[in-house]
Amino acid sequence: MKMVNYGLIEGQRKDDYLAGVLPFEERNPSGDWTPYLPLGEWQRNNFVDTMACVTFSALNAVEVQYKFLTGLERNFSDRYTARMSGTTSEGNWLFRVADSIRRDGLVDESIWPSPQNFTWDTYYTTPPIEVINKARTFLDDFVVQYEWVDVTRESLEKHLKHAPIQVTVPGHAVLNFLCLADVQKYFDSYEPFIKERKEPFVSAMKIVLTKKHQTMTQKEVIDLYKLAFYREPTTSADPNNPGEREYWTGRTLQEFLDTAKKDRAAFLLQ
């Protein structure tokens, strides 16, 4: 039976990092990333397939870690990274997408969304410079690194304690988020989004997201407001008009203090 390709080009470079180069950190001792999975997103519409499974699975890995590190859900633009990494009608390599995330940054889906009823050409329109500049600000706060890891169960069980693993099956890239005794669970860009596999994966890459600065978690923001203002921070479900909790989660304490000083100075000048 002929293999169907959903956008994966297998292969790695001689100078790519291999397991053991990046410092191993047991961030999630259970190795289970189920509570941090994002909402599923299709990589195609009724008219065209973006052939961007490598981008979708890589951004799922980043979104899972972002929620784990900050407590906030974030939906990054697959369209942005698919274009900036040079995805073609044949697909892309894992290392090229990881390089793009590390070099070009990430931007929210709301800022560079997929057009309604997109075609290949409309989906792969080059983002305007203001979107590119906005995406690069993500790298002010986060470092993105990656390394190839072995696809043995022992290897995946170990590295899943550090980060979810981008893995490949023939012709397709997905996200391994849990290894059980008899199956390995992965997150897909086609429904059903959660699937199981007993056979070994073909290749595996660990993309690691790390905070550059010591930023505040949701709990720390709430505790700060209780301590400073004797109340909890306001909250909002509107991404364009975030509440105090959403705005300050993921930002540094120093940024909060600097803003508070400016607000106090402005108040005294009134």
| Approximate helicity band | 25-40%
CATH superfamily heading of the largest domain: Cysteine proteinases
Beta-strand percentage? Answer: 5-15%
Radius of gyration: 20 Å
Total of DSSP H or I helical runs spanning 4+ residues: 9
Widest sheet: strand order?
1-6-2-3-4-5
Shape: globular
Mean pLDDT comes to 93
Count the E strands: 6
| Structural class computed from helices and strand pairing | alpha+beta
Any idea of the CATH topology of the largest domain?
Cathepsin B, Chain A
What letter string, H or E per element, gives the SSE order?
A: HHHHHEHEEEEEHHH
Largest sheet: 6 strands, antiparallel
CATH class membership of the largest domain: Alpha Beta
Question: What are the low-pLDDT stretches, counting only 5+ consecutive residues below 50?
Answer: none
Any guess at the CATH architecture of the largest domain? Alpha-Beta Complex
Q: CA-to-CA gap between the ends?
A: 76 Å
Q: Mind explaining what this structure looks like?
A:
The protein is of the alpha+beta class and 270 residues long. It folds into two domains: 34-211, Cysteine proteinases (Cathepsin B, Chain A), CATH 3.90.70.10; 218-269, no CATH class. 33% of the residues lie in helices and 14% in strands. The protein has nine helices and six strands. It has helices at residues 53-70, 78-84, 94-104, 120-123, 129-136, 153-159, 218-229, 244-248, 253-269, and strands at residues 142-148, 165-169, 172-179, 184-187, 194-197, 203-211. A six-stranded antiparallel β-sheet has the order 1-6-2-3-4-5. A hairpin with a 6-residue loop joins strand 4 (184-187) and strand 5. It is globular and about 70 Å long.
